[in-house]
Amino acid sequence: MSNNFEPTEWSMSDEREFMENLLCQRFNFFLVLFALFILTATTCRDDTTSGVILATGFLVCLMVWMTIYRDYVKHHWIMQEKIYMTENHPAKIVNDAIKRRGLLSLFSVSRWIGVVIPAVCCGILIGAALGLFCGFL
Fold first, then answer.
1. Helices 117-134, 12-43: crossing angle, 10 deg rounding
2. Interatomic CA distance for residues 92 and 74, integer angstroms
3. d(Cα 91, Cα 3) in Å, to the nearest integer?
C-alpha cells in the first residue's frame, strides 16, 4: 500500500459515503447483538443466568455503541460543516429545498441510528438485568 495520498482521489462526498456505510453496518451489527442477547436471556430458565447474560449484553452493546457514536459524530460533521456548506452540492440543494418547505425533522436519521436507538437498547438491557437481580421481573 502506498503512503502517497493524492487529495484529488478522495472527495468529501466519498468520505461521506464511506462514513455513512460504516455507520449503517455497525448499527446493523449492534441490532444483531442486541437481539442475540435478548433471545439468549429469554431462553434461560434461571433468572440469575439471564441477568448475567443481559448485563454482559449491556457491556458488549455499550462498547459497540461507542464505535457507532464515533462514526455518527464524523458523519454529522461531514454533513453539517462540509457538504451542506458546499454550494451546488446535491445534498445541500436537497437539504435547502426541504427546509424551504418546512419539512425539517426534529431528529435526523443519523442521530436516531447513532444516539437514540442504541441508548434505548442499552437501557433495556441494563434495566432488565437490574430488574432480574432485584427480583422485579
1. 20
2. 18
3. 31
Q: Output the CA angle 64-115-12, nearest 5 degrees.
A: 85
Contacts of 2 (CB under 8 A, 6+ apart): none
Q: What's the CA gap between 36 and 105, in Å, rounded?
A: 32
Give CA–CA dist 18/75, Å, rounded: 9
pLDDT one-digit tens code per residue, 36-84: 999 999 999 899 999 999 999 999 999 999 999 999 999 889 888 877 7
- pTM > 0.85: no
